[in-house]
Amino acid sequence: MPxxxxxxxxxxxxxxxxxxxTHAWQPMGTEPGCPAYSTLLPRNAEYRKHCEGPDSDPHWPxxxxxxxxxxxxxxxxxxxxxxxxxxxxxxxxxxxxxxxxDPKQPFTLSWLxxxxxxxxxxxxxxxxxxxxxxxxxxxSRRRIWVSDEHGKDRDIDTDHHGETSKTLCDxxxxxxxxxxxxx
Length: 183
Fold this sequence. Notes:
Blueprint: H1 4-22, H2 44-51, E1 62-67, E2 73-76, H3 84-87, E3 88-90, E4 97-100, E5 107-111, E6 116-124, E7 129-136, E8 142-147, E9 156-157, E10 163-168, E11 172-179
């Protein structure tokens, strides 16, 4: 009987490993029945060319998330053959600074489980102006707001609106996705 405890321990280990393998961890958003997040990979050289380079176009919109990130978003590009990962140019793996390959291409970013989204469209190359629309589900404790590069005011905010839009003409857009009541 002295081998019985080792057999039992080995058997328990085998059962435990089988259970782990059967119920393996999956990243959020990839569980069966859940929508998948968009894979957005860093493209630093292209991002810097449009946003931080010495010859970057002052009318090319660039975005930075002052609160939140793009790690749990679904990106939608209506009416095109381009997939989101080919369109979005992320600065790095932190997924907080980004621009797009083509500022004329509309897009929508939806933060999963937060019930907030940002839609971008109507880019005018001559003026550098574009429209930002923000949406917020009333049952969500999260909200989204956007500010331009001038001052610390909230240019567009879903605090009292389910949907709100504004035309901005700034190179930099600051996006905040945060629980209500925060600053």
